[in-house]
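In the design runs reported in the main text, the only information available to the sequence generator was the tokenized backbone. The following block is the verbatim input for one such run; it is reproduced so that readers can re-run the procedure and compare outputs position by position.
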């Protein structure tokens, strides 16, 4: 556990020292949402109808921006090989890096989402489901994205390839995240949709680090 927390703390320090990746993700999220009213019009009813989808889609795309650097910098300077030689198992190393990635990118998206939803006139019934669905869905984005980042490590045009690999896997999170908010606004039951998001996260927690670790071993050989 101490080695796991040391890796998380290391990645957090590096992220805070650089700062550009987290700021870029949050800036893209804010600007993309703010631009939608200019494109579709300022009608409150129209904005309220598309608010959940806009927030979730832009959050998903924003999370993609920093995924290609999840392992890339450590791979280029040799740190990844050194970390792989530590007593910490490689799947645990992947999980630690995913946790640090979510804390620096996913958590700011969760915090900013209600504010941006207010700009889009989201009805009040949708705010709690928005927070819960984002809280359950964004860690899944980091975990699944880690598999894509490991598979494309060292490849040419890795960012484009990563998007093609990961975006289809993000679709279930997007569908049930938006559906939970729409159901709440309509006064319907949201627990089934949130349960599916939770199940997706519980499945990704053990499986994604194992898959990413296997891809990293192949890249390091």
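Verbatim output:
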């Amino acid at each position: 556990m101490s080695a796991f927390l040391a890796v998380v703390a290391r990645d957090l320090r590096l992220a805070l020292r650089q700062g550009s990746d987290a700021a870029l993700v949050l800036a893209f999220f804010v600007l993309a949402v703010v631009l939608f009213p200019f494109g579709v019009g300022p009608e409150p009813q129209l904005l309220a109808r598309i608010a959940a989808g806009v927030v979730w889609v832009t959050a998903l795309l924003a999370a993609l921006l920093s995924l290609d650097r999840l392992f890339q910098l450590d791979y280029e300077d040799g740190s990844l090989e050194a970390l792989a030689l530590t007593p910490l198992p490689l799947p645990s190393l992947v999980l630690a890096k995913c946790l640090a990635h979510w804390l620096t990118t996913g958590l700011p998206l969760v915090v900013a989402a209600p504010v941006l939803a207010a700009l889009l006139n989201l009805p009040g019934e949708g705010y709690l489901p928005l927070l819960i669905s984002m809280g359950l869905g964004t860690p899944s984005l980091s975990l699944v994205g880690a598999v894509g980042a490991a598979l494309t490590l060292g490849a040419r045009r890795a960012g484009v390839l990563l998007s093609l690999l990961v975006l289809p896997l993000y679709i279930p999170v997007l569908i049930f995240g938006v559906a939970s908010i729409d159901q709440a606004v309509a006064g319907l039951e949201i627990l089934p949709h949130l349960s599916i998001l939770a199940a997706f996260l519980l499945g990704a927690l053990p499986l994604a680090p194992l898959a990413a670790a296997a891809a990293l071993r192949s890249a390091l050989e």
